[in-house]
Write a structure and sequence with these properties.
Helix content is about 30%, strand content about 45%. The chain is an alpha+beta fold and about 210 residues long. It has a domain of about 70 residues. It starts with a strand and ends with a strand. The model has no long low-confidence stretch (mean pLDDT about 90).
């Protein structure tokens, strides 16, 4: 089988306020919340939200009082970089036929970049990152596979058979990273470098050395 992936719509990156229950945030909340309240929040560990309303919608059902919600939201609030894209996948079954059967579907994804770090690849310094999936929705488009009508594709087939592998591919992409722009002959000094996402840009606070 061969998979061809292309953009259905160009990816869009946005810098916005997000709410992340990361390991470091949970460590802070452990010291700020009563023990019984912290235990309730633990069930949401690792979650990420793009707005306060969806965050509060998950906090309320587990019995978090409004005063404690305010503490949790303040600790979890951060500036995040979201990447939104819609991809079209074409799966071609290589059975030797002149017109091999295909399955076509779209995947709408929203991810938030996390765990920024500096790395190197092919002699270039890179910005590395991890993807945290917020939204993934698969929509069946068409199929020329006999007897396959796409029933349950978005609810069952893609989440089980495809989504995990796609997540792995994104993580490997983030581990390679993207080249950092810098003048020729200069390099960032990684020691004690501080990376953060600000309103509209990624900040790299680091010393720069000239390598003549």
């Amino acid at each position: 089988m061969r998979a061809t992936v292309g953009p259905r719509q160009p990816p869009v990156a946005a810098f916005q306020q997000v709410y992340e229950l990361t390991t470091s945030v949970m460590a802070v909340l452990r010291t700020q919340l009563p023990t019984d309240v912290y235990q309730k929040v633990q069930g949401l560990n690792g979650n990420i939200y793009l707005d306060a309303a969806s965050f509060e919608a998950d906090l309320a059902p587990v019995g978090i009082a409004p005063a404690d919600q305010a503490v949790i939201e303040k600790a979890a609030s951060a500036m995040g970089m979201t990447v939104m894209q819609t991809l079209e996948f074409t799966l071609t079954i290589l059975n030797g036929a002149s017109q091999p059967p295909e399955i076509v579907f779209d995947v709408a994804r929203t991810d938030v970049l996390q765990d920024l770090s500096l790395g190197a690849s092919g002699g270039a310094q890179t910005l590395q990152y991890a993807f945290q999936r917020v939204l993934s929705r698969a929509t069946f488009v068409s199929s020329t596979v006999p007897g396959f009508n796409g029933a349950g594709f978005g609810d069952l087939i893609w989440p089980i058979a495809g989504e995990g592998r796609y997540d792995d591919t994104l993580q490997k992409l983030g581990q390679t990273g993207v080249p950092l722009p810098i003048m020729k002959g200069f390099q960032f000094v990684f020691d004690e470098a501080v990376l953060s996402i600000q309103q509209g840009y990624v900040s790299i606070l680091a010393k720069v050395a000239f390598k003549g």
